[in-house]
Amino acid sequence: MYFCLVNILTIAALVLNFIKMTDFFYAIQDLFVNVLFAPLDALRALELENWGMANLISWIFIIIGFVAMVYWMIQLKGFNDNNEEDKSISSHSFL
């Protein structure tokens, strides 16, 4: 009789732990779906009204990348004009 009671209590504890774990994962789901993805849902709704405004963030990143590339090319040209670049065939001393 004692063995059956222990088994029932153990199973009940496992079921309660399972319920707590599922609540934990549902809380993670709720956090991502309803809170963290809310700006993306707003962008998705904005896209139906105004395509340019919905893609404004993408355009900003494209402009930042283009400015960074131009800056990098200017720096490379400056080093090339000053002959600071090592243009030897072997890049390592052991070659």
Compose a concise summary of this entry.
This protein is mainly alpha-helical and 95 residues long. The chain has helices spanning 2-36, 38-49, 51-54, 56-81.
Radius of gyration: 30 Å
Structural class: mainly alpha
- Element order: H for helix, E for strand: HHHH
Q: Quick check: average pLDDT?
A: 81
Note the main sheet. Answer: none
Report the β-strand fraction as a percent range. under 5%
Number of strands: 0
Plain-language structure description:
With 95 residues, the protein is mainly α. It has helices at residues 2-36, 38-49, 51-54, 56-81. The protein is built from 4 helices and no strands.
Question: Can you lay out the helices and strands and say which pair or pack?
Answer:
Layout: H1 2-36, H2 38-49, H3 51-54, H4 56-81
Main attributes?
81% helix, elongated, 95 residues
